[in-house]
Specification:
25% of the residues lie in helices and 29% in strands. The protein is an alpha/beta fold.
Length: 206
């Protein structure tokens, strides 16, 4: 298995790692196969789309634990103030990452879903626009924040989230995802913003 440093390009179907050794499963001492832990559903939600379903990974205790450990590894022992998770699967992953880093958690939600006063960022969809929001008091200026979601595809929502967080004066240290779809260019879009991108496995196609 090829080993990758933080922000390196992945080999399709294989995992990232940041150590000089191949990533090892704590129980088996074997390289961990993230692709095998993720179910692929063809033609969902539309014909020609290969949907990468992480619920199988989440339901596997060893795979879920390994995923969180790998995502937080570069910042173990570092001071991260907040982890921001994008609705909705980013809440599951982000909450676990925040717990491991002893950091606070910030939910990034669709327009109108948060109960208190918010600030938001509009972003373009294929047809029309959407908006994401956070509470006005969710983060403080100069805090160090990691953005988390389950998958990076075209990167539109993640890009808007980074811009929204930066508007508050925080430092976005990195964006972390389980799955990368490199053909759609989302990870490169975030790197162009000067953000380190960490993913664990890449799949070809959409």
């Amino acid at each position: 298995m090829r080993v990758h440093r933080l922000d390196a390009e992945p080999k399709l179907g294989q995992a990232y790692a940041t150590s000089p050794e191949s990533p090892k499963d704590a129980m088996t001492s074997e390289p961990f196969d993230y692709a095998a832990a993720i179910r692929t559903i063809p033609d969902y939600p539309a014909k020609g789309v290969m949907f990468r379903d992480i619920t199988t990974l989440l339901g596997n205790p060893r795979a879920f634990r390994r995923t969180i450990d790998e995502l937080v590894q570069p910042w173990a022992g570092a001071k991260i103030d907040k982890v921001a998770g994008i609705e909705a699967r980013g809440f599951i992953i982000g909450g676990a990452v925040a717990h491991q880093l002893s950091a606070g958690f910030v939910p990034i939600r669709k327009k109108g879903k948060l109960p208190f006063e918010t600030i938001g960022m509009d972003y373009a969809l294929e047809y029309g626009h959407d908006r994401i929001e956070i509470h006005v008091d969710a983060v403080e200026k100069n805090e160090r924040v990691i953005l988390v979601d389950d998958l990076i595809a075209t990167g539109g929502t993640a890009e808007a989230a980074i811009k929204l967080l930066r508007e508050t004066g925080v430092k976005v240290e990195a964006a972390c995802f389980i799955v990368d779809l490199p053909a759609l260019g989302g990870a490169d879009k975030l790197r162009a913003l000067g953000v380190n991108v960490r993913t664990l496995v890449a799949f070809d196609g959409h």
